[in-house]
Amino acid sequence: MGNHPSADLESVRVATALRDDIMLGRRPPGSRLIERDIAAELRVSRLPVREAIRALVAEGVVVARPRTWAVVREFSSRDLQDFAEVREAMETLAFVLATKRIDAEGIARMEALVAREEQAALSGDADAAHEASAAFHIAAVEHSGNSMLIELAASLVTRLRWLFGQHEDLGQMVSAHRVILDAMRLRDVEAMRTLIPAHLAEGRAAAEERLHQRR
Predict the structure, then answer these.
(1) Which CATH architecture has domain 77-214?
(2) Cα–Cα distances in Å, from 211 out to 39, 90, 110, 207?
(3) What is the pLDDT of residues 160-187, one digit of tens each?
């Protein structure tokens, strides 16, 4: 017999809440995830909390420690380098393929995401701006039309969002996405091969700065 559907929904809800807390820095690297405390906070039993923590371990942002508490993962400079290299290869390919294959409806979707990001930036809502920024990158992967690339990106998206999705200059982030979208609209594949690595390098620099600040 499988799990009860309501229990599955609760574990998804708990995982979403914990993931958001980690992404937004409310649960910083190294902080403990204590099942009974989280269960009390979210008003659920400990089972969905345990399942949620297991899911976040699989996503690579939580570390399970035998006979003690799970903790939010602490990334090293080498981790950052490894992920940055993979991200550059993966996202450059995704944006190049999307530029070749995207249709008018896809362009409209990308435009709506940039507009949402810009509105959030103008209103000073950093969380909403970062969410829209992440959605812009994810949409490009989906419009690549490559199922293997989509599957690979899905397995890495939580780590990538957490490591590289916290630009402090929201206006600059919007401007970069507008330039990328313009090149996509023009089907300018060669421009994309230059724009994406440069854009991702800015995110990596911001991530490295945050890593050094925590030390």
Answers:
(1) Up-down Bundle (1.20)
(2) 30, 23, 30, 6
(3) 888 776 677 899 999 999 999 999 999 9
